[in-house]
Amino acid sequence: MTYNLKNVKDLGNIKEVKFEIETYIDDVLSETNDETYLFYYNRSNQIEKIQHKGEKENILENLLPSAVESFKNFAGKLVNDTKINANKVS
Asked: Which of 7, 10, 77, 82 is least buried, going by the fewest C-beta atoms within 10 A?
């Protein structure tokens, strides 16, 4: 699976992030879907939880360690990237 960033909305301590998800089978693209995640940060701009929009489950508690690390790394870059337009990232 490949996550491609489509856009970001800055909602204060929450970032709403829309991804285009590409699923591959035997290195051939088989499916493309959009998914939106909510990234929740504390006052120190540290990631606290990540949820699929509309769901309550914190995905950081249920993913494989490598996926959790990828999401946390992205979350750190997301909050620290001064080039992010508050409404959209191309």
From this structure: 82
Give the DSSP letter string of 2-63.
EEEEEEEEE-SSEEEEEEEEEEEETTEEEEEEEEEEEEEE-TTS-EEEEEETT----GGGTS
Helix (H, G, I), strand (E, B) or coil at 87: coil
Give the whole-angstrom CA distance, residue 62 versus residue 14. Answer: 20
What's this model's pTM, rounded to 2 decimal places? 0.82
Specify whether the CB–CB gap between 37 and 19 falls below 8 A: yes
Q: Cα separation of 73 and 71, whole Å?
A: 5
